[in-house]
């Protein structure tokens, strides 16, 4: 490795509205240029628009910075990130979504925090924006002070429960490489599996308490369009998280945390997003969510984190479903109809 930092940018159909250009401009304009040797690995995930042409133009203009990696078939973001990891030369690894952007000193501040503290994982906060700007919008605190410092078992538990976004951090590459860490491919929500799992391997986590990352909110974002396929991808991410934790020997030590994260991802979030976001939800799918959770964790609703983090109304509905899938389904659908009439 002969570079300080590798920035991995998964790209799929981001050519319109200048989104990809704005992201890349923020990366080639980083203040670490001249201070550190870094690379921007742009992985085009079989885009069908002009994204690849835009990337190749940046590679031509910034050959010392930009490297384009074309995926011949679409592997989704996890596969694109893995393609970047396979060739990354940086001592540190960063990820960025190709419709987001970062402040000019984003990577300088994170790297200097790492150097000052000896951390192998460094993060920051982010700003929600709905147009291209460097003005700070609504600030979201991505992680909390009680998760930082030397990662004791207690802090690892907190970080596993709420790892925060992976694009708001830089990772010591040696930890990734030595522990064979990567991302699930072919599914949405790959970070739901990778984020908690990866967090268990790092030893010191520090934060820069500034919103240095700009998260672009727009109507076609993944999180705004719910389908059964995406719901099943979240279920798959939960199953992969469970399997990886089991295979890597974490299940006994972190059973309560793994049980709740599985329940939250596979069941709670998926159930209510499916019922509210899919036009014609199916009873069979709703039943599958409950049965899949109970198959792994029959007493999930006694978990202390479930009782702490899951809202009382959600717990009430889930308790109703445990007694009768049909009764819950009909009751919830009638409630939705009433809510829409009132709206």
Task: Describe the protein.
The chain has 343 residues and is of the alpha/beta class. It contains 13 helices and ten strands. Strands 1, 2, 3, 4, 5, 6, 7, 8, 9 and 10 form a ten-stranded mixed beta sheet that branches. The relative contact order is 0.10.
Condensed summary:
This protein has helices spanning 19-28, 51-61, 76-87, 106-117, 153-161, 173-178, 190-199, 228-247, 255-277, 283-296, 304-309, 312-323, 325-342; strands at 3-11, 38-45, 66-71, 90-95, 101-102, 121-129, 138-140, 149-150, 169-172, 204-216. With 343 residues, it is an alpha/beta fold. Strands 1, 2, 3, 4, 5, 6, 7, 8, 9 and 10 form a ten-stranded mixed β-sheet that branches.
List the helices and strands and how they pair.
Blueprint: E1 3-11, H1 19-28, E2 38-45, H2 51-61, E3 66-71, H3 76-87, E4 90-95, E5 101-102, H4 106-117, E6 121-129, E7 138-140, E8 149-150, H5 153-161, E9 169-172, H6 173-178, H7 190-199, E10 204-216, H8 228-247, H9 255-277, H10 283-296, H11 304-309, H12 312-323, H13 325-342
Parallel strand pairs: 1-2, 1-4, 2-3, 6-10
Antiparallel strand pairs: 4-9, 5-10, 6-7, 6-9, 8-10
